[in-house]
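quick one before i forget lol
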Amino acid sequence: MSTPDTTQLLLDPRRGARAMLLSLTCFSGNALLLKDLASHRNIDPWMSLTFRAAVGLLLTIVLFAPAGTLRLRRSFQSWLLASRGVLGALGTAAYYTTIGPLGAGKATLIGNTWAIFAAIMAAFVLHERLGLVKLAGILLALTGLSLLTGLAPGTMAQFGHHEMIALIGAVMAAAVVVVIRQLTRTETSATIFSSQCIYALLLSLPLAAGGFTTLNLMDVTLLTAAALCASVGQLAMTEGFRFLSVAAGGAFQMTVPLVISLSSIALFAEPFSVAQALGGVLVLWGSYHTVVGGFSKKV
């Protein structure tokens, strides 16, 4: 989730809320479709990532190329854009490969900790201030993460590799946010988003190439639906942040993991222990305060 420019915010709560509700619905649909594709249809996550990248790139070209705001060549000419593309591709790949084994709820909750890692990185790279609210949010989220994953002092040897992949993906997503904050000074949103699609396609297509012949019509339909959900969800989130304060927009986005977790429990019987459920709540609570902590006095 990219941070909006509060100086250009045009507050329109109803319009912003509609966009955020669309984003919430699409992101939840994407995660649940990915879980179904991985667990019930045995679709390789690299195939899902290939469809997401291809559909996202096509949608970006259709929507933004006619207006002249899309510059695809910049993805190969700017090292910062290339960094955004590579890190974004790897972070998304980490999320896609862990939804199947971990469940949509846990994978999304772990991935949601990008907010705390982004705040820490921004403090060193962008010299952003870590206030008391942000620090408290970071501590809450880290405590929740330890409960959610079962990670505690002396237990690293038992820490599952899927949890580790999801955590590495969250760190990469945090790095993407820091890079995006710098890119927004020189690049359009369409160009920034397309860079991830390009590099994700370059990463996933060679790994998924052998599986295209095994896909049936329903597989293609569900893969396309999941990809459209991801792309529309991203665009709707960006639109929502144009018309909502960071606090309001952040609140909407922090409900995404909650909705996905509850839906995954209902639809796929994803198991959550009491400790993991408490950890998930702390991750959401801490991440929300970390996201809005630096903006609460401005908007």
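fyi Confidence is low (pLDDT under 50) at residues 1-9, 153-158, 295-299.
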